[in-house]
From TrEMBL:
Record-linked InterPro entries: AAA+_ATPase, AAA_ATPase_domain, AAA_lid_3, ATPase_AAA_core, ATPase_AAA_CS, P-loop_NTPase
Family, per entry: Belongs to the AAA ATPase family. AFG2 subfamily.
Protein's UniProt name: non-chaperonin molecular chaperone ATPase
Taxonomic lineage from the root: Eukaryota, Metazoa, Ecdysozoa, Arthropoda, Hexapoda
Species for this entry: Gryllus longicercus
PROSITE patterns (UniProt xref): AAA
Length: 788
């Protein structure tokens, strides 16, 4: 057997005709059928002109990759060391891989000892991620030039329902090289999402330099008299590398944002908003100063942060969206709760990306709805994620500088927002949107009714607006909707009875938590008490119906009225009649129900009652059994109250006559023991009208009996005047009890009785006797003499 030559020891064979390099076992195939071999469909692997033609296989041996993390191994293409030398490749070089199906990808070269000269391997993760089928023909060659760092990569997801965070995509593809139309897969909670690269924007040479060099180059360019071409040069590069500063853009989300912007511009218009003309003018002026170049005063920064706050339903979000639609700028709508994520840092990344997109799309407007949910006040009990979001938002607001970006935030609870965001330079302009006045309600009703057919005239609309005390814009919209539904039953046109019926069905939003069922009690149901009725008219109805008279004389209407007197003398009944006749929002509070065993809850309940009353003003707050709520404090000359009661009294004093005015809120209080009420509550400016409701006199008793006997059949021998004379010392409640007992006595005699006679009333008078003690009446007389 002849000795082996040096040529036979070579691991490959090089054809002298076509200069192809192949393995020895494929020499006969090459010589007989294909010299040079076909580059479209080959039956064996070969290398020609530095390009490897082979079949891609899955790497089953994990020993070569055991020291490499999966994040690196999925981007590798494994070759023999000989093939790397023939293709002029070194370890870690990028190589372009093209499959027979036309899939183009770039992988990092890594040596492997398995296989032969032309073997090409990839891991299963790498094949799946690059959407490459197994055992397919591939062409591999060295990447001609270094890829350009990618600035922005726009991708299209295959599944619209599976929302994978961009931060996860960036983490998976960091360091990868890709091109336009490149497809890749990302696993996410057991599901795989396929993406396609739609467009890539490269970084400019200026952006790839360190920050110090950027600043120096910017100063030098400022001295140049020629304009720089910037980023408008044609993109010649085909491959791009994902770097740390690469931004990902989801094409579907951008499309949804564009359609959302169109929906804003289609649905919300400033012409459809009524009652907020001054606020609209203020906002338009602020946006004009930021969006229009040359309007900035030298040395003074424009306002970039605006906070709209007010009660729910006044139109904060609607106004912000309408302003955005009219401004013809790019809109970014952010709902506070939507930013939160289970992944650490993802919420902050989303927020940073929104601001970056807004700066790139300037002029732009960022709407932060319910900012109190996004940036609550930081304290020891707040979550770590909330603290990071507050810090991120503060940093982004500080970085706006001279950009044409404006942030409009809305909230119902401005005190819940972290104070770091409310300083000048961040959200430095706060605009309150209050409950609409009667004039503003007229404008809102005109806007709402302009889209439907109705037969209401101007006086009808003004009457509805006057009756809708405390209604916000959302309540007025619900009012018109209820009236329209009521009108559909018989006709197509809304008229005044429909609106009046709707007023009985729709209540102010702020009153729904403390909605009180008001009995249908009229002034005619209250016997006598002419002086009491007159004083209540002066305190409640006169300021509303004749405000110019009070202004002309330079006086303020009474703030509160205290009714005191024996039990059963119609103090509470008068309050019910006042609630019905005045048609004002009525909040009834029983003294004991405000107390709580938790420290601070009782005072908070008092604050909440008055806050709600101010919100739905004009309103009446009725404090029944005031002695239980506002008892005399220690050291004032009476029995010392508990510490909780003292704090409640202090809170009441602050609410009645504190820094924040009550406005059109009237306080009506009732008690049987005025001597136990704290004296500070009774000074002028608080409960400045103290009205004694005595036992009814003979004339008043006759009126009460007449009202009660209107619905009771009585015999001819019953004389109301005689009954009134016989009931000296009886209270109103006891007179009602007398009539009730007389009717029961008539039924006791005969279940078929059709009328109540005099004997029945005499029997009732023996059962129901006066229960007001003389000592209590003497107490009232002493109290009156002391206060007078």
């Amino acid at each position: 057997m002849p000795p082996k030559t040096r040529k036979s020891l070579s691991p490959w064979y090089k054809c002298d005709v076509c200069h192809s390099i192949l393995t020895h076992k494929n020499v006969e195939k090459h010589a007989e059928n294909s010299c040079p071999p076909s580059e479209d469909n080959w039956t064996y692997g070969f290398i020609r002109e530095g390009t490897l033609h082979s079949v891609l296989e899955e790497c089953l041996s994990l020993d070569v990759l055991k020291n490499l993390p999966k994040s690196v191994s999925k981007d590798l293409v494994l070759l023999s060391q000989s093939a790397m030398q023939l293709c002029e490749l070194c370890i870690g070089d990028p190589a372009m891989v093209v499959t027979r199906e036309g899939i183009l990808t770039v992988k990092t070269v890594w040596p492997i000892q398995e296989g032969n000269l032309t073997s090409v391997f990839m891991t299963r993760e790498g094949l799946d991620m690059s959407c490459i089928p197994h055992s397919t023909q591939v062409i591999l060659k060295k990447l001609g030039s270094l890829p350009t760092p990618a600035k922005e990569i726009e991708i299209i997801p295959s599944n619209q329902n599976l929302d994978i965070p961009e931060s996860l995509i960036h983490h998976q593809l960091l360091g990868s090289i890709l091109s336009k139309d490149y497809k890749f897969k990302i696993p996410y909670y057991g599901k795989v999402q396929t993406f396609e690269v739609k467009n890539v924007k490269p970084m400019s040479s200026y952006e790839m330099k360190p920050v110090a060099e950027q600043a120096l180059e910017k100063k030098m360019n400022d001295l140049n008299i020629f304009e720089s071409s910037g980023d408008n040069e044609p993109i010649l590069e085909k491959f791009f590398k994902v770097v740390q500063g690469t931004r990902w853009i989801n094409s579907l989300k951008s499309r949804n944002r564009s359609s959302e912007d169109k929906s804003y511009r289609k649905m919300n218009r400033l012409s459809q908003i009524g009652g907020l003309e001054e606020v609209i003018e203020d906002l338009q002026q602020l946006l004009f100063l930021v969006f229009q170049k040359g309007t900035q005063v030298h040395g003074i920064k424009n306002t970039h942060g605006i906070l709209l706050y007010g009660p729910p339903g006044v139109g904060k979000t609607m106004l912000a969206e309408a302003i955005a639609a009219e401004s013809k700028c790019c809109i970014f709508h952010v709902h506070g709760a939507e930013l939160f994520s289970r992944f650490v840092g993802e919420a902050e990344e989303k927020l940073r990306k929104i601001f970056e997109d807004a700066v790139l799309s300037a002029p732009s407007l960022i709407l932060l709805d319910e900012i109190d949910a996004l940036c609550p006040r930081r304290n020891s009990s707040s979550l770590e994620q909330e603290r990071r979001i507050v810090a991120t938002l503060a940093t982004q607001l500080d970085g706006l500088g001279d950009t044409a970006v404006v942030i409009i935030a809305t909230t119902c609870r401005p005190d819940s927002i972290d104070s770091a965001l409310r300083r000048p330079g961040r959200i430095d302009r706060e605009i309150e949107i209050t409950v609409p006045t009667p004039g503003a309600r007229v404008h809102i009703l005109h806007k709402l009714l302009s889209t439907t057919t109705h037969s209401l005239n101007e006086s009808d609309i003004k009457g509805i607006a006057q009756a809708a005390h405390g209604f916000v814009g959302a309540d007025l919209a619900a009012l018109c909707s209820q009236a329209a539904h009521h009108a559909l039953a018989s006709r197509r046109t809304i008229n005044l009875p429909d609106m009046q019926w709707a007023l009985t069905q729709v209540k102010p939003s702020a009153m729904r938590e403390a909605l009180v069922h008001i009995p249908n009690v009229r002034w005619t149901d209250v016997g006598g008490q002419k002086d009491l009725k007159l004083q209540l008219h002066q305190a409640v109805e006169w300021p509303l119906k004749h405000p110019e008279a009070f202004q002309r004389l330079g006086i303020k209407p009474p703030r509160g009225v205290l009714l005191f007197g024996p039990p059963g003398c119609s103090k509470t009944l008068v309050a019910k009649a006042l609630a019905t006749e005045s048609k004002l929002n009525f909040i009834s509070i029983k003294g004991p129900e405000l107390f709580s065993k938790w420290v601070g809850e009782s005072e908070r309940a008092v604050r909440e009652v008055f806050r709600r009353a101010r919100q739905v003003a004009p309103a009446i707050v009725f404090l029944d059994e005031l002695d239980a709520l506002g008892g005399e404090r220690a050291g004032v000359g009476g029995t010392s109250g508990s510490s909780v009661q003292e704090r409640v009294v202090a809170q009441l004093l602050t609410e009645l006559d504190g820094v924040e005015p009550l406005g059109d809120v009237t306080i009506l209080a009732a008690t049987n023991r005025p001597d136990r009420v704290d004296k500070a509550l009774l000074r002028p400016g608080r409960l400045d009208r103290v009205v004694y409701v005595p036992l009814p006199d003979c004339e008043t008793r006759a009126d009460i009996l007449s009202i009660q006997l209107q619905h009771m059949p009585v015999a001819n021998d019953v004389d109301i005047d005689e009954l009134a004379r016989c009931t000296e010392g009886y209270s109103g409640a006891e007179l009602v009890a007398v009539c009730h007992e007389a009717a029961l006595a008539a039924l006791e005699q005969d279940l078929e009785a059709v009328a109540v006679n005099k004997d029945n009333f005499n029997a009732a008078l023996n059962i129901v006797t006066p229960r007001t003690q003389p000592s209590l009446l003497q107490l009232y007389e002493r109290y009156l003499s002391n206060t007078s």
